[in-house]
Amino acid sequence: MSCLRSLVGGNQRPTNERFLAPKKTPFELAQHYVPILKWLPHYQVGQDLKFDLVAGITVAMMLIPQEVSLSTIMHVPAHHGLYTAATA
């Protein structure tokens, strides 16, 4: 019976603290749930903004015709497709 108890963990020893995961501070927890808190302090406007603007324009150029055509296929006014794209 003691053999079975040792297999299922009946006689567990206390865990050494050095093997436990480190405790996170409240700010680290906030960074986990709100990722912008982690990367925004490192954002370099001079280097990154121009690429982000190009990426945003590229996505808009692809998204607008797609949503207008999908709303036309669904027989709803085209501006409803744009509203859907803006809120999604």
Automatic annotation (TrEMBL):
Its main location: membrane. It is found in: Membrane. The keyword Repeat does not apply. One of its GO terms (biological process) is transmembrane transport. It comes from the Eukaryota. The keyword Membrane applies. One of its GO terms (cellular component) is membrane. Pfam families: Sulfate_transp (PF00916). It is a multi-pass membrane protein. Signal peptide: none annotated. InterPro entries: SLC26A/SulP_dom, SLC26A/SulP_fam. Keywords: Membrane, Transmembrane, Transmembrane helix. Residues 49-86 form the SLC26A/SulP transporter domain. Transmembrane segments: none annotated. This is SLC26A/SulP transporter domain-containing protein. It comes from Phytophthora fragariae.
